[in-house]
Input
Amino acid sequence: MSIERARAYLKQWGLEERIREFATSSATVELAAAAVGCEPARIAKTLSFQVGERTVLVVTAGDAKIDNRKFKQQFHAKASMLKTEEVTEKIGHAVGGVCPFGVNPGVEVYLDVSMKRFKTVYPAAGSSNSAIEMTLEELERYAESLGWIDVCKAWQDEEALQQ
Output
C-alpha cells in the first residue's frame, strides 16, 4: 500500500507517528480540509506532471491553480498533468493520496510559493484518507524539494480578500 511506503519513508526521521488516518476520504482538498479541520487553502495538494522525459510533482496550497504561463516559464514546457492511469506507476502513489514522500526514484519535487503564507500545511501521506501536518521547513526537507517555485494563480485573490 502507498501509505505504508510513505510511512516507511517518513520513519527515517521519526515522523511516521504524525501521520493521521481518517475514517472518511481525504482525496480532495475539500474532503481533506473537513477531515483535518482546517481551511482548504492549508491542504498541500500534490500535482503530477510530465515535463518532457521528466516526472514532476508540484506541491501547492489547496486554493491555488496552475498558471499555464508561469508553468511554461519555469519548466519550458506546457503543463501536462499525468493521466490517472499513469500516476501510480510513475509516482508510486495513487490519485487521491499522491504526496511527495517515498516517491519513485527520479521524480522531481517542487514547492509552490502559494503555501508560504502558512506556518503549517497538510499534505497527503500516500492514501486517500491520510494527511500529515508539517511546517514549511519540514515539508521542504522531507519532500527533498528541489526548491520553491511560483507557478500558481488564484490564491493571491483570496489573500487580498482577507486583508
